[in-house]
Amino acid sequence: MTDKRMLLVFAHPDDESFGMGATIARYADEGAQIDLICATNGDAGTVDAEDLDGYDSVAELRVAELMCAAEMLGLHHVYRFNYRDSGMAGSPDNDHPDALVKADREELVGRIVRVIREVRPQVVVTFDAYGAYGHPDHILMHETTVAAYHIAGDPNCYPEQLADGLEPYQPQRLYAVSRGRVEQLTLRMGILWMRLRGQDPRRVGRNKDIDFVAVAEHHYPAHAQINVRRYLEAWNEASGCHSSQGGGLGSMLPNWAQRLVFGHQMFTQLAPPPTSGRAVRDLFEGLPCRRPAHVSRLSVVPQEVWAQCCGLVDLTPCRAIGVNVTFDFSRYQDYDRPE
Predict the structure, then answer these.
(1) Within a domain: residue 338?
(2) Upstream peptide bond of 92 is cis (omega within 30 degrees of 0)
């Protein structure tokens, strides 16, 4: 019996749907267990007054939209960390004491490690190093998820969790949501079109705080290409749950255009370094997806092995690693150099 488990680690309600909703729908439909960590409640999201009808706060509205999408996508469980949305870089929300960017990093890494040890996923998915479009919360979740991925299998890390009955567990693969060539081309064409119309592609969005040029420059290689053409309707439905954030916009395109632009969702393999020059068609390709009879210490990988394999260069005591993990991304060849 197969036992595919995937853990998604994102920052806000809507990250799960907008970035990889069709992929989630596909794997859930195929029987995989998919769990989600959502670090904030989306408090800093801009919403229209009418969207708040029946809700006491933006956070309450955003969480309701998240749970709607979770049901549409077939998520197994949503782990809400309940930090406050930090907003885009430079906004007053950055300075709120409960903002995610103000969180204790060691504690945040530990919370992610705890969920990894509880869920025991073969695959973990998070943001790329730029956080998709430079959002501080996205970048922080990338950094802390990478750290948690590498130390979750070390019994010396967060030993209090072992006292609670959890076992060390090392996931087998770490991915970041990426863009394919068609999406990248569409983005660059959009930038050109904006300039021809006299618009500034560096100031985009409702609050003019998204830089499309920087987004285009941060394009990472796609090591996995997932065919999701059969799940575009499910993607649109889940995205539509986030109506306060403009969800469901894909439905405005004709079906042929949706299949062309959104028919495949792309992922960059962060760890271990990819060994093949081709993009895999399954995030679980080549991974053992059967639950062993005894998983106690079988999945623990020595920290030194992961250091050599994945570029971890800081081998200070484990808790320091949780706070200050340093990776030599030059060993990823093209990973840290935008295409």
Answers:
(1) no
(2) no
Same domain for 107 and 28: yes
CATH of the domain at 294: 3.40.50.10320
| Helical segments of the chain, H only | 15-29, 58-73, 105-119, 131-134, 136-151, 159-163, 181-196, 212-217, 232-241, 255-262, 303-310, 318-323
Parent domain of 106: 5-178+221-332
* Same-domain check for residues 127 and 25: yes
Q: Domain check: are 17 and 163 in the same one?
A: yes
105 and 146 both lie in a single domain = yes
Helix (H, G, I), strand (E, B) or coil at 81: strand
Query: Residue 156 pLDDT > 90, yes or no?
Result: yes
- Checking if the pLDDT of 336 tops 50, the result is no
Which residues, in sequence order, are bridge partners of residue 77?
35
Domain boundary among 218, 242, 277: 218
Exposed, middle or buried by CB within 10 Å (0-12, 13-18, 19+), for 134?
A: middle
Type and span of the H or E element at 126:
strand 123-126
Q: Which two tokens stand for residue 308?
A: 């050599």
Q: At what angle do helices 181-196 and 255-262 cross, to 10 degrees?
A: 110
At position 86, the amino acid (one-letter code) is S
Positive/negative CA dihedral, 21, 23, 28, 33: negative
Give the number of C-alpha atoms closer than 13 A to the C-alpha of residue 41, restricted to the C-beta side.
12
What would the pLDDT profile of 65-78 be if each residue is shown by its tens digit?
A: 999 999 999 999 99
What percentage of the chain has pLDDT greater than the value 90? 66
